[in-house]
Amino acid sequence: MEIELTDETIRINGQPFGDTVTVDALKSMLGEPRIQKTEPDKNYREYMEQRRGKDYFDNCKSLVWDDLGIYSRTDDGTTLVSLGMVLDNQHKTAPHTPHSNFSGTFIINGEDWLTAVKAGQNMFGNYCKLSLKRFVVFAEYQPGKKIALSERTEKDFTLIEITHEYMREKL
User: pLDDT by residue (tens digit) across 107-152?
Assistant: First the structure.
């Protein structure tokens, strides 16, 4: 499994996707996923329903490919809003956490993902963020370690999530 991200395009196993990746396209490529309905906590539900409407969570689902260590999210049932790779599922307890870790390769603008995200910025809590032209990459690392982003290794990270830039205004 190879996922390649550039400023403009996401490729999965060499197949390019344009502005959007549909649920059907990902299913045809990766097979049938386990589907997990999104059940947010009360505060997040209220926040998102104020921003997106009372019926926002009706179609929100996570699609999980347990054996590949990949998950994705859709908020309309047809188009993905994010694609994630779990690197250390022992630290993740969410229902959408795949049973296996991602074992493929992830390349960002020609670099391995770790080199690329180290060029990003530390965010609140235990995340760093790399902004590309059309995508945002969030990389979560294990909490509690006071290590500079530049000193982190692959083993420090628990997941990587790609979000289309248009979602910045929606969140």
Answer: 999 999 999 999 998 876 788 999 999 899 999 988 777 788 888 8
Q: Taking the model in full, what pTM does it have? A: 0.85
Residue with tokens 């997941």: 159
Residue 81 has which token pair? 């809003």
AA identity, residue 33: P
Within a 13 Å sphere around the CA of 126, how many CA atoms are in the beta-carbon half?
15
Distance CA 52, CA 40 (A): 14
For residues 3 and 1, what is the distance between their CA atoms, to the nearest angstrom?
7
Phi and psi at residue 73, to the nearest 5° = -130, 145
Q: Tell me the β-bridge partners of 33.
A: none
